[in-house]
Design goal:
Layout lengths: L4 E2 L2 H18 L3 E8 L2 H8 L1 H18 L5 E6 L2 E7 L3 H17 L9 E7 L6 H18 L4 E3 L2
Parallel strand pairs: 1-3, 5-6
Antiparallel strand pairs: 2-4, 2-5, 3-4
Length: 155
């Protein structure tokens, strides 16, 4: 796997399916980090669709640059990003999120500051990709409710 940014939702789901099967097969850890741009509707309205999309691509590249070589960063559609972290647990996902946040603070995107929130879920034994994704999505929802720029993990 690679930290290059892959395509959109279909590529993300294929990556997650492959990584989940591999983790189940060899008993290794797998963690999913889902990210969402805070107040993206307002950001998109201010920038327009083309520049908002460019901003998202830039965020995906930043996330990939902060990730490990074996991690896979994907755009998931809309304003969503994901990092599939094979062999990693919650601590690695939290560290990746912290590195992204630090980079956004120290070097804001050209179009202005932007915040992200994150949901983290570590795969359980024999968990299906859809179940892992649902738990990460729920953690992301909880993070957004807790306040912008936060990350929450499922138990």
């Amino acid at each position: 796997m690679t930290s290059d940014v892959t395509g959109r939702r279909a590529a993300f789901l294929a990556t997650l399916t492959t990584a989940t099967a591999r983790a189940t097969e060899d008993g290794s850890a797998l963690t999913l980090l889902l990210l969402d741009v805070d107040d993206f509707g307002a950001v998109g309205a201010r920038l327009g669709p083309a520049r908002a999309n460019t901003l998202l691509d830039g965020l995906a590249r930043r996330l990939a640059a902060a990730a490990r070589a074996e991690d896979v960063v994907c755009r998931t559609g809309g304003d969503g990003l994901a990092a599939v972290l094979p062999g990693a647990g919650r601590a690695e996902a939290e560290s990746l999120f912290a590195r992204l946040q630090a980079g956004l603070r120290s070097d804001p995107p050209e179009d202005g500051p932007v915040g992200v929130s994150a949901g983290i879920a570590t795969a359980r034994a024999d968990e299906r990709p859809a179940e892992l994704l649902a738990r990460a999505s729920e953690a992301l929802r909880t993070a957004k409710e807790a306040g912008k720029g936060t990350a929450k993990a499922t138990p």
